[in-house]
Write a structure and sequence with these properties.
The protein has one domain: Alpha/Beta hydrolase fold, catalytic domain (Rossmann fold, 3-Layer(aba) Sandwich). 35% of the residues lie in helices and 20% in strands. The protein is built from 10 helices and 10 strands. It has an 8-stranded mixed sheet with strand order 1-2-4-3-5-6-9-10, with helices on both faces. Strands 7-8 form a two-stranded antiparallel sheet. Helix 3 links the parallel strand 5 and strand 6. Helix 2 crosses helix 3 and helix 3 packs across helix 8. The protein is globular, with a radius of gyration of 18 Å. The model has no long low-confidence stretch (mean pLDDT 96).
Length: 290
């Protein structure tokens, strides 16, 4: 039997009113064991289809489309596209899920959101997987992301879109054409003119490009403080050629705060997409360990 997700929504509060955050739910809706998987900056919740299918027998798996992405609403004020607001949205989602304990897998931005939730007093998080992200983020990686983030894009076909997106996604590591098309299709919507466009709001680039060196330094200090408050078991994943999470920062994360267990994947940069069997197995074994 092929597992398929259920699309649900939750209303969240922002400075202008309410916005709708979509999330994809896998497995039994009454399973008290909940896994939340949160995607990277310009991605969406269907990135976790392969992982969700692998653990849906043990978990109720919830994969939100962070606001401004996927099937979620776009914000009226683009300056609302920031980590603290995403953390608030996830707290609202956790209230909807009514789960006493939650495990978390976060890729890149989704890891920073998870770090924020895990550091809150009384957090329900039980285990945390940070996928190729940490408190210190390489300027090289940010520059690369900023070179394409928010750029208007239109394509005629799925294959054309897949090829274009692959050019900016080499760090994801090797994927079959079938895997890459499966990752690409949920990223797209009809542009109303017979073509395709991204489901991602281009305005998510506005606060990203407003970051100054001073703001980045202050943000890094706050993230380290949050990381040092975390007490739960933490798994840190890293691509060996990542340009966002340095090996030095990853080693620091094994020595500070929750003293994360580090696993690196050869031939992958930023970020492992958790599509390959070896990547899925590492995450599955960590989450399901006694």
């Amino acid at each position: 039997m092929t597992l398929t997700p259920r699309l649900r929504n939750v209303q969240c509060l922002d400075a202008r009113g309410l916005h709708r955050m979509a999330y994809w739910e896998w497995g039994a809706a009454d399973n008290p064991r909940v896994l939340v998987c949160v995607h990277g900056l310009s991605r969406q919740g269907r990135d976790f289809d392969a992982l969700a299918r692998a653990v849906a027998g043990e978990y109720r798996v919830v994969c939100p489309d962070v606001v401004g992405r996927g099937r979620s609403d776009w914000l009226a004020d683009p300056m609302g596209y920031v980590i603290p607001n995403y953390v608030a949205d996830m707290v609202t989602l956790l209230g909807r899920l009514d789960a006493e304990l939650v495990d978390w897998v976060g890729t890149s931005m989704g890891g920073l959101i998870g770090l924020g939730v895990a550091s809150l007093a009384g957090s329900p998080l039980r285990r945390l997987v940070l996928n190729d992200v940490g408190p210190s983020i390489s300027a090289e990686g940010l520059t690369r992301i900023g070179s394409y983030l928010g750029r208007p894009q239109r394509w005629s076909t799925l294959d054309e879109a897949a090829d274009a997106l692959w050019l900016i996604s080499q760090g994801f590591g090797a994927h079959t054409r079938e895997q890459w098309l499966a990752l690409t299709k949920p990223q797209l919507k009809d542009d109303g003119m017979g073509g395709l466009m991204p489901r991602c709001d281009p305005s998510i680039a506005v606060p990203f490009k407003a970051i100054t060196p001073e703001l980045a330094k202050a943000g890094e200090a706050m993230l380290w403080q949050a990381y040092d408050r975390i007490k739960l078991p933490t798994l840190l994943l890293r691509g060996t050629t990542s340009d966002l999470l340095s090996h030095t920062t990853a080693l620091q994360m094994t020595q500070r705060g929750p003293q994360a267990r580090l696993v690196e994947f050869a031939g992958v940069g930023h970020a492992p997409m958790l599509q390959q069997p070896d990547q899925i197995q590492v995450v599955r074994e960590f989450l399901l360990a006694p």
